[in-house]
User: Fold these one by one.
Assistant:
Number 1:
Amino acid sequence: MTATTSAPGRSPTRRHMTMYGPAFVAAIAYVDPGNFATNFAAGSQFGYLLLWVIISANLMAVLVQLLSAKLGLATGCDLPQLCRRRFPRPVVWGLWLQAELVAVATDLAEVIGGAIALNLLFGIPLPGGGLITGIVAFALLGLETRGHRRFELAVAGLLLVIVLGFFADVAFAGVDMPGIAGGVVPDFSGARSVLLATGILGATVMPHVIYLHSSLTSAHVRGLDPAGSRKPLLRSVRRDVLFGLGLAGLVNAAMLIVAAKVFHASDLSTESIDEVHTGLGEILGAHAALAFALALLASGFASSSVGTYAGQVIMAGFLGRSLPLTLRRAITLTPALIILWAGVSPTDALVWSQVVLSFGIPFALVPLILLTRRRDLMGPLANRPVTTVTASAVAALVIGLNLYLIGQVIFA
């Protein structure tokens, strides 16, 4: 992977501007096709009940991605690299293996989502759509070889398509303010709601992009002086994260709001993304269905390229080795194509892939907390005690929710 360095001779304004972009790449992972499946399933089955989960997960995402970006800013290295240097070898191998499984689950959701979108828009069979999604994502990633800024701009453009698509659908559906107000109060309704909440969390706080964000930020600060001179850039990093992740949070909330307003209120079945598309067309009109399908297509293309990029960062960081992009693309694409050829329900595969991602969060988040609290590593950018406590509480909540889910599944 190539990167454009931020030379010390640049003006302060230009150095601050170079820090914008990584969070928009990270934001794509937070609105990938897995979010479509879990958010629409949650909204159609439980109305606004789980809106608070989306809000909470997005706040967690802001904190987590800020820590990841700060790690890259302070050290000029990414999280997997620092894990390899600071942790025992057996721990590093374990972290790498689970991170690779997370990468496969991520690509599964993204390729399937792109395939479904191509089928909805053009009638392309799902296996063919999955192959096209993989090829387009690979082409997008090729922009990164010409400098990370081109890749970031292309991804930001696709994020804009997703944002506009769902803002349009909210405008078509209308807003139920009392229902939304009720959805911000924490509550569950049985094991199924907990399963979907876990899926929402896995689709919102994405393990692979925790690794990736530190790498993207470190690429922006190569060539700068040691960590002390980087503290003034932290404000720009914070703004980047708040804006990028804020957009992703609004899109996720919009998905659930549309599902609750259109499907839950009408008692219509939305067991699959195809049914969501059909239902939007029947109730809101063809323009709403088109906006949904275009947003899904943009999500599948962009998030698949981001997922492959993250896979490269994971392997290079943990093992000090890398695979050719073509080979990695083939490896991560294969499971998705097998599922599409086998006729497994794409929507079910999407939801369960997000549950797998949720179980991977602690393995990325715990090392991140341990490293960002170390002043000998982070210098002036080390976490304050309150930040470490808050991030630890987030990790504990995720682990607790996953253990509760296991109990529900085993003993229900």
Number 2:
Amino acid sequence: MSDNETKERPAADPAAPYGSANNPSEYDVYNRLAKDEPYFIIRGGDPLSDALVELHAYIGAGQSGAAHDTLERILALTSQKPPRPVGSPKYRETFKISVSMERYRETHGRSH
């Protein structure tokens, strides 16, 4: 199978939460990722997951006011809990993924 082919996925389970592995969204790309394309998964149990995805949607839709409000909500949520220390392996890894994504986009272009 080439890097650009879609892999087979079992039929969606409508009882599963939308956007999950068992009921993927219409635009789910996990099975379409090229083998060298970096990705980052935000899991539903992450305390910021819904707000981060909402922020991404508002920015993509050009709704700057709603994006600003959502970012303020994220900042308020993060101020309630001390951040990970700068030396945290998870923190460093997240930035490494970000750099990989930037480099990938520079050489491959946008994926959509």
